[in-house]
């Protein structure tokens, strides 16, 4: 049996556990006592072996200690000796360094002198060569060898650069400039001929001459000059067609007048129809030049052809703007007859009746889209060009529209204002009794139908902004939308005022003594009432129904504007992402193009290609405008942001005014019947003597309160149609029920408040008047209970105190102590009935 001693070295060694484990390893037939005896014997033998080995190794270690001590002393002596040797070497090196530094300094001075002497020698050689070249340059020019002349002038330029500003060579410097111009002029006809006749070898040779003398600009100029004529002919073709059509029409007019021919005039081609063909021909021409220049000028074709397009578009820029302006005017007969366009309308040069219309802006956007297609083709064709070259080219292509984009906000305001003005938003103008209810309903219908039309106008404006400016004028769009929405809501509010007058809540009424008062002049609100005697009950309810319909106008306006504002915020957030990538992506590619391209050519990267849209082209060079726009777009991501801040406030104010009007109309009949209630003569009447026992008061409520009660009980039936209109589905049924109940409670609470106010205005009441008033109050309380309205404690106190006999009233008030009665009201009733409580 082997004994494993590794377990004894563990920190958590457990003797009992180890013994139990050793016992479990025995053979089942071996007795436990024998196994333990064997285990003990083996452990004892192992321990003896360990002790013997330890003693032996300890003795050997003691023998090695003296020898190790001697080795340590020897190593220490050697280290001291080595340190001394190193110190001597360092001292020697310091001495050598001092002497070598002086030698090196001397050698550096000698080398400087040598370099100056070599430079002087080269300068003298250049000066001598410059003099020689100056004297022989005329012979070179006379030989007609242009490449040799270019080399000579290049050498002269090199020599002048080496000599520097020396007065003796000033004349040669002037002579060199003259000679370079002379050589430039000699190259021009040959280069022009090679460009016209597609002579690749000659063109390359002439290009090399111009590059040799540093005249690359001349190459660009000659190349542009040759091909610009062809492009201008393409552009002038439109005027030629117009003149041809005009002459043909005049000729037809003459022939028709002489022969009575009914042949119609030839229609002239519009600029919008002609522009795509011009772009197609121009693109084809540029593609051919691009391919030819790749052969003739492989180093410069990425610059030459874009430069040609830039010069061409710049040369026709003013004419392009004029044609676009006239093309926008041709779509509307009024401006077409005047031969004017959008810019003329915005400048105010046209009659006041001529206003900018949606068709004007749509025509402008159509032309812009045509140019956008051409720009995308140019971007694809010039994709190998440097980014800043491509940017400049595309900006030049879009340049004719910049004048219009800078005035986009003004244009959009004009279009939207015209759209708002075209809506039928007439207020109530009929003043004939009997038809005002119909006019009220028609006016509300026109208001409600105008809301979705206005939202469509606003949505169309947003689409136009993105289509025309790519969102770069989003800030101007928001201002225009806000202003026009305010204009629309102001019109609705004007209609609301006319509705108030028709409904009778703002009409001026005649009062006693012939003095006119408004609703603000009288506390009881009687002046707000129409004369009930002059209209039927059916017309009265028609006013109520018309007023209730206004609530749908306010609800529709609030919900539609809220949805549009959320959609506009979403559009602005999307623009924020797109424009940030476009503008900053283009700027990054433009600044870091040498990093993005391994060949060092500065070609457009993939990110730059994707980001070159119309907005990026406008914003990349105007960081201040871009910063303000991005701040606005970043704010739009906040849920609390109002895209139409002023309009949102005005919508809320309009909804509040509508609620106020509806309430005034619904409470109007109550005001009429409760008018002068506190001054009714029955309150001060006394009991008349009679020979028969009759009641001292009427057992029935008076007409003023029964009319109000009947009105309140009928009002839910009037609210049902409007609630059904709101509840178009089962999902809104609960909302409609809440709506009807809410307004019913408002009117009932208002009627109760008016009634209590009139009761408090009674100065003195007799017992007979008190008995009658208690019947009236009881009837109104029953009506309120039928409408599931709680009875106010003040009204209950009035009923209790008026129904109580005068001799018992004091005891009632004293015994209640505020448990059931409203004490201020009870004290007021006591004062009315002449009961003293003290």
UniProtKB/TrEMBL annotation:
Q: What domain of life is recorded for the organism?
A: Eukaryota
**UniProt record, GO biological process:** Golgi organization; intracellular protein transport; retrograde vesicle-mediated transport, Golgi to endoplasmic reticulum
Topology in the lipid bilayer is annotated as: Peripheral membrane protein
Tell me the keywords, alphabetical order: Golgi apparatus, Membrane, Protein transport, Transport
- Fetch the PANTHER family from UniProt: CONSERVED OLIGOMERIC GOLGI COMPLEX COMPONENT 7, CONSERVED OLIGOMERIC GOLGI COMPLEX SUBUNIT 7
**This protein's name:** Conserved oligomeric Golgi complex subunit 7
Give the GO cellular component terms, alphabetically: Golgi membrane; Golgi transport complex
Give the UniProt subcellular location, in the record's own words.
Golgi apparatus membrane
According to the record, the signal peptide region is: none
Report the InterPro entries cross-referenced here: COG7
């Amino acid at each position: 049996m082997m004994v494993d001693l590794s377990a004894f070295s563990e920190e958590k060694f457990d003797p009992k556990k180890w013994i139990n484990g050793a016992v479990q390893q025995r053979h089942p037939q071996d007795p436990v006592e024998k196994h333990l005896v064997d285990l003990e014997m083996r452990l004892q033998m192992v321990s003896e072996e360990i002790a013997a080995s330890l003693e032996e190794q300890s003795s050997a270690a003691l023998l090695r200690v003296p020898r190790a001590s001697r080795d340590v002393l020897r190593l220490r002596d050697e280290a001291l000796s080595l340190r001394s040797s190193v110190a001597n070497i360092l001292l020697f090196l310091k001495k050598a360094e001092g002497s070598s530094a002086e030698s090196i300094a001397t050698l550096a001075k000698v080398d400087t002198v040598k370099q100056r002497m070599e430079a002087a020698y080269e300068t003298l050689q250049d000066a001598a060569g410059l003099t020689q070249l100056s004297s022989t340059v005329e012979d070179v020019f006379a030989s007609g060898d242009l490449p040799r002349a270019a080399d000579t002038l290049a050498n002269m330029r090199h020599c002048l650069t080496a000599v520097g500003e020396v007065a003796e060579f000033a004349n040669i410097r002037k002579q060199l400039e003259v000679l370079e111009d002379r050589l430039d002029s000699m190259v021009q006809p040959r280069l022009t001929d090679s460009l016209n006749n597609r002579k690749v070898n000659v063109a390359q040779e002439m290009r090399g001459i111009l590059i040799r003398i540093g005249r690359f600009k001349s190459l660009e100029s000659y190349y542009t000059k040759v091909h610009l004529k062809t492009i201008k002919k393409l552009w002038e073709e439109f005027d030629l067609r117009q003149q041809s059509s005009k002459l043909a029409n005049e000729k037809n007019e003459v022939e028709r007048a002489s022969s009575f021919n009914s042949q119609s005039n030839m229609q002239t081609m519009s600029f919008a129809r002609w522009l795509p063909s011009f772009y197609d021909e121009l693109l084809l021409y540029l593609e051919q030049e691009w391919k030819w220049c790749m052969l003739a000028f492989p180093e410069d074709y990425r610059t030459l052809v874009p430069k040609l397009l830039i010069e061409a578009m710049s040369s026709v820029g003013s004419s392009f703007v004029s044609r676009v302006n006239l093309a926008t005017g041709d779509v509307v007969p009024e401006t077409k007859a005047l031969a004017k366009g959008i810019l003329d309308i915005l400048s105010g040069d046209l009659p006041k009746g001529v206003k900018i219309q949606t068709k004007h802006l749509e025509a402008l956007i159509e032309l812009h889209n045509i140019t956008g297609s051409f720009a995308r083709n140019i971007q694809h064709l010039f994709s190998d060009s440097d980014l800043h070259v491509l940017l400049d080219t595309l900006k030049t292509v879009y340049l004719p529209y910049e004048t219009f984009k800078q005035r986009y906000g003004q244009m959009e305001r004009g279009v939207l204002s015209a759209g708002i003005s075209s809506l039928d938003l007439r207020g109530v103008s009929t003043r004939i009794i009997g038809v005002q209810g119909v006019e009220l309903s028609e006016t509300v219908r026109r208001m409600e139908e105008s809301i979705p039309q206005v939202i469509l106008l606003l949505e169309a404006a947003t689409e136009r902004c993105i289509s025309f400016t790519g969102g770069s004028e989003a800030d101007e769009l928001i201002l225009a939308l806000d202003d026009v929405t305010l204009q629309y809501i102001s019109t609705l509010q004007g209609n609301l005022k006319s509705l108030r007058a028709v409904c009778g809540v703002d009409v001026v009424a005649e009062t006693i003594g012939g003095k006119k008062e408004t609703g603000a002049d009288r506390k009881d609100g009687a002046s707000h009432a129409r004369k009930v005697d002059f209209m039927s009950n059916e017309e009265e309810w028609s006013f109520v129904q018309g007023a209730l319909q206004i609530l749908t106008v306010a609800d529709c306006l609030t919900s539609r504007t809220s949805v549009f504002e959320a959609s506009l915020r979403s559009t602005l957030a999307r623009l924020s992402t797109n424009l940030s990538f476009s503008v900053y992506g283009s700027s990054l590619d433009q600044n870091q193009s040498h990093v993005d391209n391994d060949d060092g050519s500065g070609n457009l990267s993939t990110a730059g290609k994707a980001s070159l849209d119309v907005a990026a082209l406008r914003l990349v060079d105007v960081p201040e405008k871009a910063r303000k726009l991005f701040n606005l777009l970043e704010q739009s991501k906040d849920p609390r942001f109002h895209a139409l801040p002023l309009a949102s406030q005005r919508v809320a104010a309009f909804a509040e005014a509508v609620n106020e009007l509806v309430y005034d109309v619904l409470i109007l009949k109550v005001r009429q019947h409760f008018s002068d209630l506190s001054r009714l003569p029955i309150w001060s009447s006394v009991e008349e003597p009679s020979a028969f026992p009759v009641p001292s008061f009427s057992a029935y409520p008076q007409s003023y309160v029964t009319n109000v009660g009947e009105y309140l009980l009928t009002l839910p039936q009037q609210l049902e149609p409007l609630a059904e209109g709101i509840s178009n589905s089962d999902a809104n049924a609960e909302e409609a029920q809440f709506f009807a109940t809410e307004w019913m409670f408002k009117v009932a609470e208002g009627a109760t408040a008016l009634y209590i106010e009139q009761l408090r205005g009674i100065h003195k009441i007799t017992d007979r008047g008190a008995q009658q008033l208690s019947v009236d109050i009881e009837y109104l309380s029953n009506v309120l209970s039928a409408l599931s309205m709680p009875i106010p404690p003040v009204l209950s106190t009035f009923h209790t105190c008026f129904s109580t006999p005068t001799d018992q009233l004091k005891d009632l008030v004293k015994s209640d102590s505020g448990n059931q009665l409203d004490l201020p009201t009870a004290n007021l009733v006591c004062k009315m009935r002449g009961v003293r409580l003290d």
